[in-house]
Each structure stands twice: as C-alpha cells, then as structure tokens.
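Entry for the shared binder. Reason: the reviewer on the internal report wants the predicted structure included alongside the sequence.
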Amino acid sequence: MADQTVILRRNRPGTKSENFYKWADEAYEEMDSTLVVQQFIQQSIRRSHTNIDAILAPPETQDEGVWKYEHLRQFCMELNGLAVRLQGECQPASCTQMTATEQWIFLCAAHKTPKECPAIDYTRHTLDGAACLLNSNKYFPSRVSIKESSVAKLGSVCRRVYRIFSHAYFHHRLIFDQFEAASSLCKRFTVFVTKYSLMSRDNLIVPILDDELVPQQGGESSA
C-alpha cells in the first residue's frame, strides 16, 4: 500500500507569526468536519482578503442559510480586532455617544430599554450580544442546518455591527483605514449584506464601494 503524506493543518507551538497557516489549501469536498463552512471561509480569506467575490462565493451544494450564518460569525470574530484597536482612542470621555457623522446617533440594545451609551461600550455590548445570539442553542443548535426563522434574525445583527464600521470610519479614520487595508472587512461586509439583502442601502453610509455616495438621511436610530 502506497504511503500517503498526511498534512497537519495546525499551527504548532513555537510557530512564528509569519509562518502561521502555511499549509496547502484543502478542497471543500475533502474537508471532514462539522465546522467545514467556517474552515472554507477562513481558508478563502487567508488566500486573499481582497478577493471578496471568491470569499463570498458558496460551494454549489451549500445551504444558503448556513452560509450567511457562518459569514456573520466570521465578521464578528474579525470585528473584535477593530474593537481592540479602537480602545486606545475611542474613550467614553471623548466619544460619549455611538455616532456616525453628526446626523446619526445609535441607541444600544444591550439595555432593557435601548438607550445611548459611549461608543466603545456600544461596540463591546454589540459584539457580546451578537456572540450570545449566534452561539445560542435555542436559535442555532446546529452548524449544518438552520431554521428559516433563525436565519431571519441575522439582518438585525448585521445592522447593529455595521455601526461599528461607520463610527470608526467617520470618527477614527486612521484606525479604520489601517484595519481595512489589512483585512478588507468593511468592504466585504458591505458586499455581503447587499448581496443577501440583509440591510437597506440607505443604512450603508460608509462609502467603501466604487462610485458610492454617502446617503444623506440621518437622525437617531433605535437598536
């Protein structure tokens, strides 16, 4: 029987950061795990974070609800990196409200009654709330099959986490630009929610796509 080379797709202890994930790509059909969709998405991002069409293109047999769910999980995980960068500059004393431009003020849904809170607290509360929902055994007990009623909840999560992008863009532009250059996360998110109609274009106020204008509507937005 011929010897078969086994590729261990794991970052070994002591691996230098520049050598992380330096293994050959694996075909979707050959991935054998309940986390196969997450693995496939992350592999596509590592291959090229700027190739957004390829990252968002599902395998032929992929359930659309699971595909949307796993992408949103991935967005929230990566957004934690932006939140960490914001902490040094986005202080409660300087950013007393979750705003984007002078027209948009967002209310935080983490409280019994949605209310204003400092932008960095809003960011933490929103990501914590998204993690709780997306890891809920009540709404998402499986990573393989998801009920349509649960998929319907993804839109509200998208709307809330997008506000982190908009605050960073309009109030912490240097941090936003550096993070976006390294990840293309806001552009990928915008293409994603547009592709699957998870957000209204009027709410996509960061001009991240080509020839895109910032909507002029404003006001106070509820959670």
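Summary line for the report: The longest helix spans residues 64-87.
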